[in-house]
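Contributing new complexes? Match this layout with adenosine monophosphate.
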Amino acid sequence: MELYNTLSKKKEKFVPLEEGKVKMYVCGPTVYNFIHIGNARPMIVFDTVRRYFEYKGYDVNFVSNFTDVDDKIIKRAIEEGVSSDEISKRYIAECKKDMDGMNIKPATKNPLATEEISGMVHMIQTLIDKGYAYEKNGTVYYRTRKFEEYGKLSHKNLDDLRSGERSLLVTGEDEKEDPLDFVLWKPKKEGEPSWESPWSDGRPGWHIECSEMSKKYLGEQIDIHAGGEDLVFPHHENEIAQSEAANGKEFSKYWMHNAFLNIDNKKMSKSLGNFRTVREISEQYDLQVLRFFMLSAHYRSPLNFSADLMEASKNGLERIVNAAENLKFLMKNAKAESMTEEEGKLFAQTDVFVKDFERSMEDDFNTADAVAAVFDLVKFTNSNTEADSSKEFLSKLFDLLVKLTDVLGLIVDKEEEILAEDIEKLIEERQAARKAKDFARADAIRDELLAKGIILKDTREGVQWKKA
Ligand code: AMP
Ligand code: ZN
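Output block (do not edit by hand):
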């Protein structure tokens, strides 16, 4: 399997740090509003990457944070006259609803920056102790020039950066030893959320959040770190400087970045105001259509959002879903049980679609070509099945279609779909049954969920669930 590594600017063979395992960190959204469909691109892309690794038998530890302390969150809280916490909690909940609609698998862990402050303080202290950071008037800065490899991810030269940065130098920052130095900890301003630290009551800088959360939940070295291409510099460059200086080890082996989702060929962003929220799209389309639209392009190519492309995606997805529905209908009415010899030979021909699909995914996750392989299978299915086909032949084709579309996170078997809300309801009912000592009912609910591919885990914090 090959993937493009921003670090080397080349496609590289994927070799995991630990056999059979993938440790993956994806920078998540800042939660001060509904997510827009630009934010949805990395979610869909890297969920698909995860799904393919799982399809190949890897055990994937997938961590993605929510940035829940930030100037924009504070601003929104002040505007509404509520706490920052209320804003971030609200939009995390809304984001999770959108993610569920896009069939994004729940992460192994979604750490919240505000719950990991003590670890960040500890990491900053390590950087100070090692001479990579210094404090000035309650603010802690990273001593960028001290990290010799600075610029290795974004392929920038420090001196070019310096001349660019000089003109950007703003008042209040002249206390820095060097214009390139960036903030690790900043003192609070009146009315802002803050935490105690050896330097001041304040809050962490954005970059240190991810360095710490990645280390805490995945360890000092990970396989893949990912996000949108705007994060290469400075966010990921700074994360590397922090993590590698603090831990004395290479941080991530592979760095993956998706290209932008554009509208009228400009980056979709909250600051430009040219965005569409995922929620708005969901009023017009099933979010599966949005997912299919995103996967119809290679993740490193810019993708322009348009009504026409969304319509084309809707039609494309319908073709696949219709093929699955048709197979199900034929299966219900099939008279013959077992596959004939001729059907066996026909089914063997589908191998080529599986090979095409895998080859595409293994070529830096070329989902556009993988979708083409699925269409080939759909075409084959439509032209080789009929009322006389055997149940075995039909169900083999159906299972194959479900297996491949599931890697792309597309749900083609509508009846099997179970919504997060329904799962939560059943879990609540099961808890109530247990309380009432109705263990038979509690077990029945567990089995019912298991049959739908939902695994429950009882933990001290409550019941957690995941899709099998
Ligand atoms: P933010 O909330 O701005 O920190 O963004 C969260 C994630 O969405 C990051 O990985 C960004 O790189 C990504 N992102 C933001 N806007 C776009 C866009 N227009 N196209 C693709 N990815 C984006
Ligand atoms: Zn990050």
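Reviewers usually confirm one structural detail per submission. For this one: Residues 27, 29-30, 38-39, 41-42, 227-228, 230-231, 258, 260-261, 267-269 surround adenosine monophosphate (ligand 1) (CB under 6 Å).
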